[in-house]
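Here is the promised in-class demo. Please do not try to memorize the tokens; focus on the logic of going from shape to residues.
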């Protein structure tokens, strides 16, 4: 399921699953998603679902809607695009990776490390100027996931992106979000077992701690706070 992860000042504040044909964003309480800040317009933008995919449309906002650093009136979205609406960043997630044990024809973790065909997309996003001065950037921690069971045991996945999705559509998908000084994990979809230290992973983000143990559909992994 397509999803937007909304953050402000480096902190994730909301996860929005895109289940409606049209989801509106803005400062006015009548919007589907309310973004409370003076630099956000009352009716700022809308995200629409159609047979051709997901698109964002600016609704005549004062400070504009940006996709990957470029101001846009309307644009089709791709997995891991970053939207900016005033002081808010919205990361679009669509099309999670498979679990390492299920990746066909290549070692998923190895490809991520080597930058091969299956490598996760790394992006740098320009941020627009808005009326409110931007807060100083906080240091970003390192971090990694290490596979501890199955044929890929011992392989590591660096958590170098703002969002890392793991799983297999139709089975289980989780997202790990990188914050200023910590990481969180949350369930995106699926009925297969997904646990953190033996407890089910819920849709509400939970903070990860060094040495935490994750299990996704029978594949065991460890989280390490330092890469």
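The designed amino acids, position by position:
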């Amino acid at each position: 399921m397509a999803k937007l992860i909304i953050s402000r000042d480096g902190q994730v504040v909301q996860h929005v699953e895109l289940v409606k044909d049209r989801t509106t964003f803005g400062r006015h309480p009548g919007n589907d998603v309310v973004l409370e800040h003076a630099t956000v317009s009352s009716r700022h933008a809308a995200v629409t679902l159609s047979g051709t995919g997901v698109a964002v449309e600016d609704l005549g906002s004062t400070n504009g809607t940006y996709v990957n650093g470029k101001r846009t009136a309307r644009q089709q979205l791709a997995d891991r695009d970053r939207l900016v609406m005033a002081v808010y960043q919205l990361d679009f997630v669509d099309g999670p990776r498979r679990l390492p044990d299920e990746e066909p024809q290549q070692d998923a973790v190895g490809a991520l490390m080597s930058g091969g065909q299956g490598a996760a997309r790394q992006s740098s996003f320009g941020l627009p100027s808005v009326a409110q001065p931007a807060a100083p950037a906080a240091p970003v921690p390192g971090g990694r996931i290490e596979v501890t069971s199955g044929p890929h045991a011992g392989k590591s996945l660096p958590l170098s992106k703002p969002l890392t999705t793991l799983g297999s559509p139709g089975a289980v998908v989780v997202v790990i979000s990188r914050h200023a000084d910590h990481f969180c994990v949350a369930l995106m979809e699926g009925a297969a077992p997904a646990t953190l230290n033996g407890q089910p992973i819920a849709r509400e983000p939970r903070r990860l701690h060094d040495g935490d143990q994750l299990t996704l559909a029978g594949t065991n992994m460890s989280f390490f706070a330092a890469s």
